[in-house]
Amino acid sequence: MSNSLSTNTKTTNMGNKSTEEMTPEKNKRMCNACMNKISSFIIWSLETVFFKVGLFIGTYPLLTIITCSLMCGLCGIGMKTFHESQEQEKLWVPQSSRLINEKIWVDKIFPQDTRFVSFLTVQPEGNILTPEFLNALMDYYLQSFKFSFRNQSFSDLCLRVNSKCYVSSLLEIWNYDADVIRNLTETDIKLKLWSTPVSPVTGTNVQTLLGGKIKMDSNGNVVFAEATEIMWIMEKQEDTSTALDFEKAMIDMALKGIRGINKTYVYATRSFDDEGYGVINQDIKLLAMGFIIVFAFVLLSLGKFDLLRQKVYVSLVGMYCIGLAILVSYGLSTALDVIYNPILSMLPFLLLGVGVDDMFVIMETWKNLSPEEQKLDIPHKLGVTLSHAGVSVTVTSVTDIIAFGIGASTAIPALSSFCIYASIGILALFLLVATVFASSLALDERRLQSGRDACLCCYKHKQPYTFNKCSSDKSFLQIVFANYYGPFLLKLPVKVLVIIFTLAMAGLGIWRAIHLRQDFDLTNYLPSDSYAYAYDHIKKEYFDRQGMETRVYCGGLNYFRMQDVLQNMLERISNSSYIQTGSVNSWFTAFQMYLPLSGTDVTSEEVFNAQLFQFMHSLYGQRFAPFVQFNSSSLPVSVKASYFTMTHSLQIDSQHDVIAMDKLREIIDTAGLPQFHGAHLPKYMCFAYSREYMTCETNKVLLSELYRNLGLSAACVFAVTVILIANLWTSLLVFVCVLFTMVDVCGILEVWGIKIDTASSILLTLSVGLAVDYSAHIGHTFMTIGSNRNNRALMSLKAIGPAVFNGGLSTFLAFVLLANSASFGFQMFFKVFSAVVIFGLYHGLVFLPVILSLVGSSPYLQAKDVPTDRTMDCDEEATNTILVNDHAAVTKNNIELIHADFSNSRM
């Protein structure tokens, strides 16, 4: 009985124990204990690694600087193959798009390697259908043939149609006959215009050449128009110098103007390179000014106002690290054959702003070492500094690299290449700051201990050195954060106001962000004061009835057997609401009308092709000669390929342009035509293609790619912060700050009128990584301090607040000069990153401390305790009492290891 009872009792106890273990409270305690063990292991591991790195660097600082410089120089050798790509299909079009193979086919069968000069001639509120205006237009035409460069004129450069230079304008309907045009009357002009709806030279619908207000009489005939376009087309030569000179002469002529025409606007093939990319290259000089401004700020922030403790060379080495990171990024990326595009000219500004942040973190740690740690020799002192600062610097750097790395997987090549360059640059910068910049601290400390001058290192000051009044040991920002800002922020009424304001601002940001529009248009990147920008806006104003011009190409098709299919397809295209009425210019339709007149009974493919060949050489069909390619120049022949031209109806925005493109493709794809067979060929025998479709293909995936990149970047950033901060709740609060920052940034961009395009997508993707910097420092420092929540939040602001603020301010100063840049891309860069800095600092230094003081997580097991019953001031006694560093408290085991190593080195 006794044994049985005992056994039952044990069983019951064991059952109770099992039940207890399964309770939620017990599970929570076990989970917390597990997280504490994980956090302790991660922090101890990182601190140990950084301590050993710092110990080596502090012992061999010159060797470290020289070795790292040589390695960066070797990486820079990759730039020997550097070249810039400006081809739209390689930069902005997803390489999986059907358009890629279609463009390859078109370029091979119907090479469109042409150059052009376009004039928009305008008579506001005046009629262009007058003899005076057409004579002035003729003067432009005749003058274009008088320009000569290297013994070549436009006649030598032009694209020829039916042996005549291709110049598209109203003058076509008079066949550019100067004698006839000079003697025209208004009646002659109107009668000719009414009787010639289609140009006999190029087959262009004449009304498409008219712009502005158009008036018609009761019979529907045009009697008034405000504007017209004249375009010179040239064949592209291997040596483009002559064509470039001709275009420049034509641009100058248009800007100078001509009598009889109120205003002429011009755009040429070279215009975007000159006005768009050109202004970007010109603004690169602002990078040098940015380096100077940031250097001055770093110099003032890191050092003291005396000849001994100023950090001149430390600041210079910091700028040197950024320069090396830029070299490594460009060198390695080029060596890996990653395409370089003009948007990458913003990368140096990005690295300049990001790099200084890590330097401030390390310097704040160096200055805030405890009295015991200050007594260590230089190698051990640097090791302790890096062990404290390393975790926080690693958090921000890894999250940046992860965010950029996610962007590198996007389908848009220009965005992908930018993110690859940025990832390599941030990684290089992280390593260089942890090695080269840290080495400069060791060398500077040697100089300081020997009493040598901050600028003239060979000069040794007399000891003891007398410090001036301006060279105070107290940190102004620490005084502000600890004695004024922190205590005020953490008052209960202020906390309530901060939370209400933050939530209201987030709600407003969400509301405005929902209204963000997608619109990628390369012309937005033209300076607003350029002639090319004026041309684009005038064309949109005066020629607002036309959409995208496009062509339907057909290759390898049996036109005789497919006559009914082609006829049905063309009818569906003509009747589509996405195609401008009357804009379809089809050789097939004209040929069908010609056949009954030829008197030949077409009974076979051979007869069909023979009749088509004769048609193309007849007076009626010769204007369609460029539309069809035969396999031979004499009978018998077969049709190798052909195309039809048309114009889309004007759409309200870029997203509807995508719909118009897809609707036309759908008509063609479902027409019942056969398919190509083979790699690198279009899928269908007939397909729609236009250079403007490249922009449509970009817009087609732009928004989904942005959402994908932002989502993946945010998820990865959260995962990294959880691993490195090693506390789920604190990481979640940091992540909330990042989300609020991004929501506010998107909202303010909509207010500023910025649309979603490739550049803004790049910057928003990068912003996820940058936004975490300001909050992660505060969150991690909060975890290293042991006390009540309010006190820990206050001490976090005192310890790391100045570094976070200086890092944000230096980032802003790095690109502040871009505010007045003529480049749209640089202006957008300034707006996006200014918003990230402002909202990032707010959420990191205002909102997060308030939230942590209310619901912050328990500190790390090895966190240092701080006093809770005394005033937090910045005098020397308080500083000696509060053993808190800016990022991470060294674990007890690590402290013992440090002092043991120090003692052994003494022995």
From TrEMBL:
Residues crossing the lipid bilayer are 286-305, 312-332, 338-361, 382-408, 420-443, 496-514, 706-725, 732-754, 760-782, 803-826, 832-855
Gene3D superfamilies named in the record = Multidrug efflux transporter AcrB transmembrane domain
SUPFAM superfamilies hit by this protein? Multidrug efflux transporter AcrB transmembrane domain
| Compositional bias (Low complexity) | 1-13
> Do the record's keywords include Transmembrane?
yes
The record places domain SSD at 283-443, 726-854
* Keywords recorded for this protein, A-Z: Membrane, Transmembrane, Transmembrane helix
Q: Record's Gene Ontology CC terms? A: membrane
Renumbered to this chain, region (Disordered) spans 1-23
Q: Which family does the similarity line name?
A: Belongs to the patched family.
What is this protein identified as? NPC1-like intracellular cholesterol transporter 1 isoform X1
Please report the organism this UniProt entry assigns to the protein: Biomphalaria glabrata
